[in-house]
Amino acid sequence: MTVLDYVIVVTYVIAIVIMFLYAVAELSLVINYVLAKKRTKTTPKIDLDSLKGGYPLVTIQLPVYNELYVMGSLLENIGHLNYPKDKLEIQVLDDSTDESLAITKQYVEKLKAKGFDIEHIHRTNRTGFKAGALKEGLAIAKGAYIAIFDADFLPQKDWLLNTLPYFSNENIGVIQTRWGHTNRNHSLLTKVQAFALDIHFTLEQVGRNSQGHFINFNGTAGIWRKTCILDAGNWEGDTLTEDLDLSYRAQLKNWEFVFLEDVVTPSELPLAMSAAKSQQFRWNKGGAENFQKFSKKLLTKKGLSLKTKIFGLFHLLNSTMFLNVLIVAILSIPMLYIQNQHTELQVSSFGMILFLATTLSYFVSFWFMYKTINGKGLKIFVSYVGMFFSFLTVAMGFALHNSIAVLEGHIGKKSDFVRTPKFNLNAKNKNWKENKYLSKKISPSVLFEGLMTLYFGFGMYAAFVLDNFGLFPFHVLLFVGFGYVFALSITSRI
Questions:
Q1: Is 95 a catalytic residue?
Q2: Is the pTM of this model over 0.90?
Q3: Which residues neighbour 465 within 8 Å (Cβ) at sequence distance 6 or greater?
Q4: In sequence order, what are the beta bridge partners of 60?
Q5: Which helix (H) or strand (E) holds 420?
Q6: Nearest 5 degrees, angle CA 177-CA 178-CA 179?
Q7: For the chain, what are the domain ranges?
Q8: How would CATH label the architecture of 36-276?
Q9: What distance in Å separates the CA atoms of residue 319 and residue 317, rounded to the nearest whole number?
Q10: Active-site position among 94, 95, 150, 198
Q11: Catalytic pick from 150, 152, 198, 243?
Q12: Which pLDDT tens digit goes with each residue over 390-433?
C-alpha cells in the first residue's frame, strides 16, 4: 500500500468511528427520553394569581429584518395573547431597510390604539445583527421576563400563562418551548426539516434536560429571566448562533433551563431550498463557532459532572457530524479500489458494518420520537420507514453545504447573519417563488453538489466493475440525496 492509501484508510476509519460514537450518544439520549416520559412529572409551578404584586411584568421582543410577508400575522397574533395589558410590554426590534418598515409602523400604531404598550425600535445599522437588536432592546426593557419570537412564530393565546409558572425558583433562567410547523406537509423538503427538528425538540432537548445536561435556548419561542441574561454577560454577536452562545454562558454560571415538550409554538419552515440552506448554514457554522468558544471552558468547569461535559461536547459538535459524513462519503469510492487491490484488507466491510450499525441506531432512536408525536400501529411504522430514509437521504445531500459552514466556523472565518426568508403561505394568492427575498444567485457549492451527484453515480457503477456491492446502498443514498439538493437548489431560483 502507498502512503496515500494508508492516509485514506486511516481517515476513513476515524471518521466513521466518530459517526458511530455520535449515534451511540444519540441512543443514550433516547434512553433518557424514554425514562423521562415514564416518570411522573414533578416540575414545580407557581400560581401566578397568588403572586404578591400580581402578574409579573413581561417584555416581548420581536427581532425582525425585512419581513414584508409576515409582520401582519405576527403582530396580530401577539395582540391576542391572554395576559394583562398593564403587565405586558412589546418591543418590535426592527432592522428593516425596505418597505416593510412603514407597514410594520402601521401595525404597531393599531396595537397602540388598542391600549398595548408597544414600541417600534428601528436601528439604522445591523451591528451585532439579531444579538445586537436584542441587546439594544434589553437596555430599555421594563419586564423582569423577556419572551422572544422570530417573525414567523405564532404563539398560542395562553403561551405566557403556560410558561411563566415554571419560573418556580430563582435559579431557573430560561423556559424553552417546542416548535410546531404550520407547513410541515407542504413538500418533501418541509417534511424532512420538520422530522429533523422534531428529533431535536424531543429526544435531544428532553434527553439532555431530564438529566441536568446543558441544552440551548433555540433563539425563539422561549422566555428568559432578565437577570439571567445580564448575569451571563448579555447578548453577543461574535457567533452566528447567539442563542447557543448565551445558553452556554448562562449554564456555565449555573443557571438552570427548563424545556417544555408539551407547549408547542407554531412556526413556518423554509419552503425553498435556498432558504433552507441559508438557515442550515447559519446553524451549522454557529455550532462550530460555539465549540471553539466553549469547549475548553466546558471541560475545565469545576463542579460539572464528566457525563454532562461529554454530552456538552457532543452537543457543540453536532454540526461537525456533517463533515464526518462528507469525509466518509468521498473516501468510500477510493476505499472500493484499495479493497480490490488489497483483498487482505477488510476495512471496506468494517466501514459498511459500522455504517449499518450507525443507521440502525438512528432508526431505533428516531422511532421513539416519531411514535410519540404520530402514534403507533403498522401504518404509522410504514410511514416512519419512508420518512426515515427520506430524511437520511436528504441529510446526506446537505453534507457538502453544511461542511463548508462547519469548516468556516472552526477556522474562525466571519460572515454576516443571513436571515431566512419567510413566506406566509396562509396569505391569499401567494406564490412562494415570487418572494422578493429569495436569492437568485447560484452559489459555486451548488455546482459542486452536481459534481458530487455524478461522483456517487460513478460509485454505483464501480460496484459492478469491481464486483463489490458492499457500499452500493450507501452510494445510492448519496446519489439521490445530492441529486435532490442540487436539483432543488437550481429550480428554487427559477
A1: yes
A2: yes
A3: none
A4: 90, 147
A5: none
A6: 120
A7: 36-276
A8: Alpha-Beta Complex (3.90)
A9: 6
A10: 95
A11: 243
A12: 999 999 999 999 999 999 999 999 988 888 888 876 654 456 67
